[in-house]
């Protein structure tokens, strides 16, 4: 059925499964419409096989695809298409200005010319896309255009994983923009005005990204080399556990004796120092605009006491993000299991929302 016929007949769009492939885990999420909002239809989290992803890059498509397939099966989703994201380190983005009176064809042609100034790779090796953001704030005769480019090999890896997992790849997004998409919901639930700049620290296993958002626009994004894997590694060393055993917090289990003082508090202090440095990098950037609220998201965001400790030390409001707050749950959803992983589903949520664009 064409998009035109679907809209004419009032049919719902085919479900789009958000698939977030992280360094340590794969998160899948499917959303459906529920009145004026959304409903969680399916979700799952699956561990990434050891060595299948290195430094944020997929190195073993077969094993990653099998993990995606397991996650989809566990979720119960029947979706045939998915959206995936490439990480910020694999993407070059730039906002450029062009004359407002250019036709769409002329804009596209000019983009090709402009892209050569910003992309340090041969054009044939790059997948390029752009979005017209609107009039330039300081000159009504110009329009702002967001240019995004990634080496085609990164996009091809996503497509290969999707196909091996039995899915069609309908959307390839940039990770920070998928997060910004989900944060449109977070902002509304928190009652934060669109004119206010908010910070988002997406905490992965080995790397974290500080993103500054104003309205639905990403005005700053920078990756920093720290993440939640350090907490797991410390537990493995201290208690002689393997990686699965050391992830007890993610399963909601009671920690071993001495964990709070010997492991958790030093981890929190280290993260606070890293966040302070990340905010200093941001404040020295040319796009600086004061951040009054910082949201933590990603797998390590729900570390006990972390948000409160960050807020106290850094001196700004700090909260754990919940992109699916207020959403209804399908009858098949295990609410208890979902509760433990909500902050980790932010990127997958932003990807799943692409199905409603």
TrEMBL record:
Pfam families associated with the record: PilM_2
Domain (SHS2) ranges: 16-183
Coiled-coil residue windows: none
Biological process according to GO: cell division
Gene3D superfamilies (UniProt xref): 3.30.1490.300, 3.30.420.40
InterPro entries, sorted: ATPase_NBD, FtsA/MreB, PilM, SHS2_FtsA
Alphabetized NCBIfam families for the sequence: pilM (TIGR01175)
Cited PANTHER family: CELL DIVISION PROTEIN FTSA-RELATED, ETHANOLAMINE UTILIZATION PROTEIN EUTJ
UniProt protein name: Pilus assembly protein PilM
Species whose genome carries this gene: Wenzhouxiangella sediminis
Taxonomic lineage: Bacteria, Pseudomonadati, Pseudomonadota, Gammaproteobacteria, Chromatiales
């Amino acid at each position: 059925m064409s998009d035109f016929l679907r809209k004419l007949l009032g049919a719902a769009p085919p479900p789009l499964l958000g698939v977030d492939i992280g360094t340590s885990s794969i998160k899948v999420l499917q959303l459906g419409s529920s009145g004026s909002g959304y409903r969680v239809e399916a979700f799952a989290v699956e561990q990434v096989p050891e060595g299948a992803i290195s430094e944020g890059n997929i190195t073993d498509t077969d094993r990653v695809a099998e993990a995606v397939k397991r996650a989809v099966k566990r979720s119960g989703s029947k979706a045939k298409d998915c959206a995936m994201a490439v990480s910020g380190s694999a993407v070059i983005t730039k906002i450029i200005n062009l004359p407002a009176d250019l036709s769409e064809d002329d804009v596209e042609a000019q983009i090709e010319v402009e892209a050569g100034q910003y992309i340090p790779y041969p054009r044939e090796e790059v997948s390029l896309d752009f979005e017209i953001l609107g009039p330039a704030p300081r000159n009504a005769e110009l329009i702002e255009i967001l240019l995004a480019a990634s080496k085609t090999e990164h996009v091809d890896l996503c497509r290969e994983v999707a196909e091996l997992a039995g899915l069609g790849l309908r959307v390839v997004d940039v990770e920070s923009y998928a997060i910004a998409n989900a944060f449109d919901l977070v902002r509304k639930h928190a009652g934060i005005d669109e004119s206010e700049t908010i910070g988002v620290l997406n905490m992965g296993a080995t790397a974290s990204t500080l993103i500054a958002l104003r309205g639905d626009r990403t005005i700053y994004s920078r990756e920093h080399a720290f993440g939640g894997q350090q907490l797991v590694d410390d537990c493995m060393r201290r208690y002689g556990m393997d990686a699965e055993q050391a992830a007890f917090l993610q399963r909601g289990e009671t920690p071993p004796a001495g964990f709070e003082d010997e492991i958790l508090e030093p981890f929190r202090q280290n993260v606070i120092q890293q966040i302070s440095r990340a905010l200093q990098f941001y404040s020295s950037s040319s796009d600086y605009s004061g951040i009054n609220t910082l949201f933590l998201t990603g797998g390590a965001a729900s570390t006990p006491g972390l948000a409160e400790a960050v807020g106290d030390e850094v001196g700004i409001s700090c909260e754990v993000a919940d992109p699916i707050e207020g959403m209804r749950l399908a009858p098949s959803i295990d609410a208890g299991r979902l509760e433990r992983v909500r902050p980790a589903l932010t990127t997958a949520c932003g990807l799943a929302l692409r199905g409603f664009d």
